[in-house]
């Protein structure tokens, strides 16, 4: 039986393995090339913001159409870098119940953050799609891309959104992730490709990159050809 989880074993446990997100996308391109280059019914969907440059490189390498899928992290109040779950544009919400049980958050705080993110999702969809309808994914081979997984909950929201429309096959491709998140996502998709897998107790996506910064909305629009 074909392996469900694919990694570059020479990159396991390493840090600063990619110069930037574009190079990371090229690494993924080399991993998927033999199986998915120029397939008739394939599409690459990237999670903005950081997934866009990765996904664009991957779609170029494979010769496949590219689009974005809008999902967002539910942030912990007072700690915007950390999240307690994620939400997709269609309202699908995944909560990290184990993490939430250790946080002193009221139900009102959780609902307030969900409401904020719902509004943000609509704004980002308008910004990055400019009125274009979401592509028809039914019967297609979909490759979901981000610049890395942390807890994996943001990707879970994207996976669920795509599964609802009946793709032929669903693949996740990310440059870096902790092994626990790779395992979590692998249970929900047909295959997962992760170039750099790490097993350290502490994990940060940024540690896989030598040049890392948060992309702003204008940069994403430029990459998508939406400037001006």
Secondary-structure map with pairings?
Layout: E1 5-7, H1 21-36, E2 42-46, H2 51-62, E3 66-68, E4 71-76, E5 79-88, E6 93-95, H3 97-100, H4 107-129, E7 141-145, H5 153-163, E8 169-178, H6 179-186, E9 191-198, H7 217-223
Parallel strand pairs: 1-9, 2-3, 2-7, 7-8, 8-9
Antiparallel strand pairs: 4-5, 5-6
Helix pairs in contact: 1-2
Shape: globular
Percentage of residues in DSSP E strands = 15-25%
Number of domains: 2
> Strand order of the main beta sheet, please?
1-9-8-7-2-3
List keywords for this structure.
228 residues, globular, 23% strand, six-stranded parallel sheet
General description of the model:
This protein is α/β, with parallel strands linked by helices and 228 residues long. It has two domains: 5-69 and 135-223, Rossmann fold (3-Layer(aba) Sandwich), CATH 3.40.50; 74-127, no CATH class. Helix content is 36%, strand content 23%. It is built from seven helices and nine strands, in the order βαβαββββααβαβαβα. The chain has helices spanning 21-36, 51-62, 97-100, 107-129, 153-163, 179-186, 217-223; strands spanning 5-7, 42-46, 66-68, 71-76, 79-88, 93-95, 141-145, 169-178, 191-198. The strands form two sheets. The chain has a six-stranded parallel sheet with strand order 1-9-8-7-2-3, sandwiched between helices. Helix 1 packs parallel to helix 2 (51-62). The longest helix is centred in the middle third of the chain and has 23 residues, at 107-129.
């Amino acid at each position: 039986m074909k392996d469900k989880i694919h990694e570059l074993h020479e990159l396991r446990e390493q840090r600063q393995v990619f110069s930037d997100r574009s190079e990371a996308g090229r690494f993924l391109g080399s991993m998927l090339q033999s199986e998915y280059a120029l397939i008739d019914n394939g599409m690459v969907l990237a999670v903005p913001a950081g997934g866009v440059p990765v996904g664009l490189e991957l779609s170029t390498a494979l010769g496949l159409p590219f689009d974005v899928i809008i999902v967002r992290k539910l942030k912990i109040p007072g700690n915007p870098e950390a999240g307690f779950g994620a939400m997709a544009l269609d309202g699908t919400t995944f909560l990290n119940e184990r993490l939430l049980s250790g946080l002193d958050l009221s139900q009102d705080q959780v609902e307030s953050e969900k409401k904020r993110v719902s509004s943000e999702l609509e704004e980002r969809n308008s910004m990055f799609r400019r009125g274009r309808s979401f592509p028809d994914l039914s019967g297609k081979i979909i490759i979901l891309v981000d610049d890395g997984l942390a807890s994996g909950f943001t990707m879970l929201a994207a996976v669920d959104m795509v599964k609802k429309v009946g793709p032929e096959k669903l693949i996740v491709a990310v440059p870096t992730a902790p092994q626990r998140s790779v395992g979590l996502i692998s249970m929900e998709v047909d295959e997962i490709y992760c170039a750099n897998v790490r097993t350290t107790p502490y994990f940060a996506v940024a540690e896989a990159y030598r040049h890392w910064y948060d992309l702003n909305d204008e940069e994403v629009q430029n990459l998508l050809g939406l400037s001006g």
